[in-house]
Design brief:
Two copies of one chain form a homodimer. In chain A, 43% of the residues lie in helices and 18% in strands. By secondary structure, chain A is an alpha/beta fold. In chain A, the strands form two sheets. In chain A, strands 1, 4, 5, 6, 7, 8, 9 and 10 form an eight-stranded mixed sheet that branches. In chain A, helix 3 crosses helix 6 and helix 7 crosses helix 9. Chain A starts with a helix and ends in a 7-residue tail after the last helix. At the A-B interface, helix 9, strand 5, strand 6, helix 10 and helix 11 of A face helix 9, strand 5, strand 6, helix 10 and helix 11 of B.
Chain lengths: 327, 327
Amino acid sequence: MKAYFLIFCLPFILQAQEILPSWNEGPIKQSIIEFIQKTTDPSSVDFVPVEDRIAVFDQDGTLWAEHPLYSQLVFVFDRIPQMAKDKPELKGKEPFKTVLSGNKEAMMRLTGKDLMEIAALALTGMTTEQFAIDVQKWLQTARDARWDRPYIELTYLPMQELMAHFRKNGFKTYIVTGGGQDFVREYAWDVYQIPPEQVVGTAPEVKFSYNQEGMPVLMKLPKILLNDNYGGKPEGIHLMIGKRPIAAFGNSTGDQQMLEYVTGGSGLRLAMLVLHDDAIREYAYGPADGLPDTKVGTFTQDLYDQALKSNWGIISMKKDWKQIFSF
Amino acid sequence: MKAYFLIFCLPFILQAQEILPSWNEGPIKQSIIEFIQKTTDPSSVDFVPVEDRIAVFDQDGTLWAEHPLYSQLVFVFDRIPQMAKDKPELKGKEPFKTVLSGNKEAMMRLTGKDLMEIAALALTGMTTEQFAIDVQKWLQTARDARWDRPYIELTYLPMQELMAHFRKNGFKTYIVTGGGQDFVREYAWDVYQIPPEQVVGTAPEVKFSYNQEGMPVLMKLPKILLNDNYGGKPEGIHLMIGKRPIAAFGNSTGDQQMLEYVTGGSGLRLAMLVLHDDAIREYAYGPADGLPDTKVGTFTQDLYDQALKSNWGIISMKKDWKQIFSF
């Protein structure tokens, strides 16, 4: 009897154990597994054909750490001293003066308008190919201060497992980020096994032209084409995917409309928000249990209430994740 | 000896015969087959990893017939009488008056600006979902006059075979069209086995909002976000694919910059233009052999000269295609 049990049941037990190993057992893990089972089982009323299996993921704060500062903003700040060498006039001009001072507290107080101006200088005015080279160079040298590791290592292991589990079940996984599309595409393949065409993000206009050698190039212009935040996320999804995804994961108010759009379609849908409630293993901010507010990855009480009302899952990093990083 | 030959060689002979059966033997067919062989053979110096195998195709005039009029323009014209029922003021107002007159010759004389105004009315101002329903309805009833067939049957069999051959060899095939992205996406899967996310086209802005029931919807606004023609094609490719494709097919001046961009990358590249030189089996227009000019799918002498100079292939419908349509 025992031998039979082992021979016939062990593979199933092992398989069950292998799904999402960094997630603790509980209703969140259970509902993810059930959603994927129901949408991929041809005999289920919730079955979804493979071409409609699309899952979208916010990046900053959902797939990797966003505190103390979005890594793209660190990249932007890091570029300004270099740019000031070619453009010395920046040294006497705000908001660049503040960035060049290196005073981190003053930099944290910069307004949204200031940051847009700095970002426009750092992220546009070059060809797409030059930009790609610059990002690659930065990725290889820049390190997060708290963990003293390259930023690309600060991805959440449970979310990596989740995306892999979706893909194994025929889902296409997309990143839908408020961050720069060209920036995220530079590492999305290495970090998440997501190709550039599956990264939707904030994008400036690019202009086709010819360089001095007469070769065609695309220049990045300081003008936003797609602001992939809030309502811009479903707008970007329509532009680049052209179908309503059936699963969405986010962590902040910028993801609200994406989750509404995804769950607004007919059939079984899955929507979840990552709650940063683990100050020891990562960071703690957000609405629950008196966590502090933040300007980086804002998760308001309103969004929390909406999530509960709409039956969106709240992923507690503290309770639902056995391990956060792979290191 | 003979039996051995058959047993061992017949499968190879059959396989060779099966590649692009609607293409006549010749340098064009040969260079397509060679390009795919070289880029997919791991031992070749021209080998391209599967994630970089991207081939882009213009639609109108490249994958299906564009004469006497782009089918999307027929759709637009067909919608105006319906819209005039709700908006009777259109009846007295140009350019709508001309469209409502049904006078085809007068309609052919409408200016680009007129057509933009008509298209804006017919293609925007509704939700993306309502638009999809309207397009589906039209596709099921509208018929091309010359062949008395639904428009979606007017695709070129040799190009269908070509796209299938690319895909069989690990390529992702994209449509990059000056036509409306939302319009083409409605039939691209059925007609070309190309999913919506692999259709790049001219796109209006969409705006996230809520309908009267409080459900999230996307409204199509009368404002162009991406004009996917000329330089807009490489711009759209960068936005939506994020990589430089390695093969491109077009048929008109609107495709020139796309072919320049694709062939401007390093490594082996393939670029070809379809020449409409078969008045009997399809239509004849363009630069070669005194073919007439056209406003629909313009192929200038300049483009022809550039193609010869740049070593882009010219696909003669008359000489290179054994069969044009599947019917």
